[in-house]
Every structure is written in structure tokens, then in C-alpha cells.
Amino acid sequence: MWAPQQEHSVSQLILVRTAAVIASVPRTAWAVSWGVRTGLAYARCMATHPDHSTEAYQADLSALHEASASRLRRLCQSNGGVYVKAAQLLSTAQSIPQEYRQKLEVLQDRAEPRGFEEVQLAVLQELGAPIEELFAEFEPQARAAASLAQVHKARLLDGREVAVKVQYVGLETAVTADFTTLSVLAKAAAQWFPNSFDFGWVLQELKQNLGKELDFRMEARNAQRLAACMAGRRRVAIPEPVPQLSGERIITMEWMDGCKLTDLERLRDLHLHSRDVAIELLQAFAQMTFVDGFVHGDPHGGNILVRPHPEPQSFWYRWFGGGWVEPQLVLLDHGLIVEIPDTLRQQYCQLWCSFILNDQDTAQAIATHIAGKRGGELLPKLVRPGALRNEDQRRALRTQAGVNTLGDLGRMLEGLPRPFVDFLKVQAIIRGAATKLGSSLHDRLRINATYALKGMSISRLPDGAVAYEGSMQSSRKRLGISVSIAALRSLWWVGSTAICLWRNVISAFSGTDSYVRHPA
């Protein structure tokens, strides 16, 4: 009985993969059409305005960027899969026109869920048995569907609720066809506009990322390692994989509910204060970056949920909560991880500690080790919070660094260590989310400095050595940093506690909830 069922599933698999190849044809045609039309439009614009320094050229170019970016967003959203991943990657690249970044950054990784028959086929092929033998319950309707996979809620035979992430059947075939199309378009763009942004590194990174994201066994290992890193953080939860029901194209994990990270209205309904969430978010990612060197690489809103802490409230919230509930972050989707080499992690910790001392010479020396002479002059001003407060300062920095065209900026970014660029992009996403949730510049400075100091003395190198730079070589200076950060945290804690007690007194008399700023 099993042999005929398996033979039938193989024939179904062949049909699905054939359909994937056929479906790639209209996607390719649309992409090529966009590329040709856009290339001709830019060529006409440049031919119409021989002098590229005029305001008329800049205005026409900006309007062209806007129109082309809108068409590109529609194309990527409709084509899905690789196109959505490529667009999301481009939206984080500071070296492409702002109009493109603004259009592409709102692109959502959504897709129409596949039919349940295809899910049954995928489970049978990957896990070797039909769904009804492996699960007590399995919802036929997907809870979420993205470009590479969809998620179903299920119940195990022992009663545990789980999320089953199923990769689309035939996806590898579609990815190969779509990636070939994007490669051809990128090479054509490089020939047409040699002084503009080179998309080569984007495609290379996309190819590497897809290789990781398409192997769910790697995601399971990443989840387990990140859970070990976060084991000491009460307010961070990571779903536990179920190894016996996971494979290369299917991963089964513990089910965890929660609301979207930046859903402010829902957070308030759950009595979760948004700034408390922001503080925990900043702390968790500061620990990943400065201490662990193992950073969640795709922290967009859909991959970070927030829920009331499932365990009894901590001492602070019991006594000083003022009606607010202790939050817990739930980190999902661990297919992309940024692993920071330990030498680079130590250097980044020292760079941040040099900011505390306001030691510009040490900061530049460390930045030069990371990014070379040219990047060393630019990096401290880009990384240090509040260093660039207006457009005039940013323009002066671009002039100082010799970045006059998109091509210049692209080449400079290519000279930086790849993990460094990757975790800077992650930090930019986290900074934006934390700001929306109500955190301040001082919060980020205090939290990053705290974890940079902690991570600076940790070495995972074979010899266990820490190569201190500049003033960081002085134990007296390092002690001074420790004292400064301890004093800063103590003052903030005392001030927060005093404010909290006062507002709780007011709350007791007025009968309204008061906001508590818990210590970081």
C-alpha cells in the first residue's frame, strides 16, 4: 500500500516542479520588460541633460527614480520569491537612491498560501509519513505565507502545540530560474551605467542568504544556538525545534503567540508599555552584537513578536509596575544569522568604548583596522549616535570621504568586512523599531556602552588574547570606563525608581495606570 502512495507522490512532485518552470516564464518576461524600459528611460534623461549638476536634471532624475521604483515594487510583490528577497536586501543598501529605498522598504514578504494537497506532498516527501500519522491535529489553512514557505499550526501526538514551516514544493527550480534572470539584468545594468551602483555584491549576498534560508536544518541549529546565547535573558524567548519532525525543507517548532513588535495599539491593549519593549529589544541585540557575536540577521516586524510574560511577574513589575505587565520578546525565523569574527567583535567593542572616553584618535585607529584608511575616517562618524544631526553634516562627510556617486559609495561598502556591513544593517533596523517604540538616544548610548564594555574583555580566540588599541591598552582607562558606565546606570536607576514611585502614588489616588521606566 505504501509503495503505490510513494510512487504517486513522486509523479506529483514532477508535475509541481514542471509547473514551477512554466510559471517562471511570465515573471522573467515582466522583469526583462522592466529592465529594458527603465534603462531606456535613464538613458533619455541623461541625454536630455548633458550637464548633470543642474537643478533641472536632479528634479527629473528624482521623478524618474520615483516612477521606476514604484514599478519595481509592483513587479517584486507580484513575482514574489527571489524578487521579494532581492528587493528587501536592496532597501537596506544606503548606496541606492533614496526613492528606491523608501519604496522597497515597505514591501511585505507575503504570498498566497499553497493548497493543502501540496503541503501533504511536502510532508510525505520530507518526513516519510503522511500528516495524519505524525500529528494529532494539523490546520489545513496556513496561518502565514511568505515568499519561500508557509506556516501551519498543528498539535503533536503528545498534545504540544507547534508551528510547522513548510517550504514550497518546486521552490529550488523557481529560485534557479529567477536568479538567472536577475543576474542577466544586473550585468546589463553594469554595462549601461558603469559609474552607478554595482549590483554584483547584492546578488552574491542574496545567493548566500538563500542557500542558508532554504535549508531548514540550519535554521534549527541557529535557533538552538541563539537560545543558548539568550538563556540568561528572562524577557527573550526562542521557540524550541522538534528535531524528529524537521528536515531540510520542513521545520517544526514550539508554537508561541504574540503581537507584532511595533503594533502600539495592541501593546497597550495587553498592558505592555512600548518603551519597556524597546529597552529589552536594544539590550537583547546589544548582547548578540557585543558579547555573543551571533546576531539574528532578519529582525523585521514579522519576525519579532511581543507577549505578556507567561511566568509570574518579576519583582520590579510586582512592586513598581503601576498596572503595566512584564513583556517578553519572541524571536522567530532564524534562517539568517550574522556571525561576527571575534577579532572584529572585540574591535567594535573598543570603538564604542572610545566614544565613552571621547577619544577620537583611538576611535579612528580602530576604525582604520576595520575599514582601511579611507573608511577609518568615515566610520566613527557613521556609527556614533548623534554624530550626524543634519543634511549639511552628512554632505560634508560625503565630500571628506570622496563619495560623489553611487558607484563610489558602493565600492567603499564593498571594502568593508561583510559581517560588519550585515550587523550594521541589523542595528539600523533595531534602532528604527526602538525609536518608534519610544526609546531615546541616551538609552541606546547607555545600553550599547554597557554591553561593549562587557564584550571588550571577552576573547574566543585560540590564545584567549585581547588586542587592545590606543588608550584601551591602559587598564586605568578601562577602569575609568567601567566607573563612568556604572555611575550612569546608577543615576538612571535611581531617577527611574523615584519617578516610578511618584507616578504610582498618583495612580493610587487617581485610579489610572501610570508609566514605569524600569532599570536597564
TrEMBL record:
SUPFAM superfamilies: Protein kinase-like (PK-like) (SSF56112). Coiled coil: none annotated. Pfam families: ABC1. Residues 107-364 form the ABC1 atypical kinase-like domain. PANTHER family: AARF DOMAIN CONTAINING KINASE 5, ABC1 FAMILY PROTEIN. Belongs to the protein kinase superfamily. ADCK protein kinase family. This is ABC1 atypical kinase-like domain-containing protein. It comes from Coccomyxa viridis.
